[in-house]
Here is the input.
Amino acid sequence: FAHSIYERFLRGELFSFECASVFRREWSLYINEDFPSFGAKNLEESWFEAGESAFESVEDVPDHYEVVGVEMKIETSLPFGSQLLPFKGFIDLLLRDKRDGSYLIVDHKSHARFKSAKEKKEYARQLYLYAELLIQSGVVRARDIRLLAFNMFRAGYVEKIDYNPDHALEALEWAGQTYSQILSAIAFEQCTVRDK
Here is the structure.
């Protein structure tokens, strides 16, 4: 539900000072499962406090950025190996820097911090695939994408990544391999069911 609060704020439906109270009011509407035990630490309390703190410190988008899209649905075909396959994504936030026309793709994460550079690179695949969706659909040109970012709101920081075309290709290769593995698993499952 944090995405919904960010969405409403970025669309101008909430002021920054309203976000924390909306978070507190909506917490019990959306969080209705018990948190797992984690030693002496109360995870529910910890997550609530981190979320509340994040929304108490929400800031307006800097003046040099223009909001292009919020929860932006993009559907197109992406090149996976030798074939084009349909792909859909929801981009949390797309910003354009008014100073140079470059774009910043932002994804909101409740994740506290990346444990390693490897984990950060794996998560970045999502942003690179979003970049490819924007490029293939004609919304932006590849040369205009400069930054990708994770808004690690629970931890209170933004993790920025300089756009790297080689990493974009790696993300596409990974997605293509994953797609092939899924198709193989489905085919195996169908064969297993037929053989019974």
